[in-house]
Amino acid sequence: MSGQRWDLATEDKRKNFWSHVHQLVLAGKSPIVQFVRRQDDPKTPSQIKYAHSLCQALADHSGVSLEEAKKDAKVAFGVVIVSTSCVDGSRTARLKSFADYSTSEMIGFITALECHLVENNIPFTPAAL
Fold first, then answer.
1. In 3-state terms, the chain is what percent helix, strand and coil (to 5)?
2. What 3-state DSSP class applies to 73?
3. Which residue in 51, 105, 108, 124 could disulfide with 101, CB within 3.0 to 4.6 Å?
């Protein structure tokens, strides 16, 4: 049983999984359970709060609203989604919401924005390590 992975994607497989676990327990063996999850976990709420605090520092320094600073920071350092229309071939772009960022995308945004703030001597409160 060691080293085997269980794909729990279908209802039949989920039912069979517990049947196999029961058989292993009766045989005196310990099954190794591995849960299926997204490869790149979503960002944490603390990452989103910290990104907003960095955008607020940019807004305070620039004299603009938080929303405007956040939009400009996302354009410069964030994820832009470009789509091509299947009807007329036109291209459109939109900014990805922080809620849809992955952990790695959020880390990239935060790192780039921190560098920008430091390079431009904009005061901000760094995240606690």
1. 50, 10, 40
2. helix
3. 105
What's the pLDDT tens digit per position in 18-41? 666 566 666 665 555 554 444 455
Cα–Cα nearest to 47, from 100, 110, 129, 115:
110
* Report field, pTM of the whole predicted structure over 0.85: no
| Residue 88, pLDDT above cutoff 80 | yes
Phi, psi for residue 10 in degrees, rounded to 5: -110, 160
CA 46 from chain centre, in angstroms, equals 12
Amino acid at 17: F
CB 24 within 8 A of CB 31: yes
Residue 57 has pLDDT above 60, yes or no: yes
CB-based contact 54:123 (threshold 8 Å): no
Identify any residues that bridge with 93 across adjacent strands, giving them in sequence order.
82
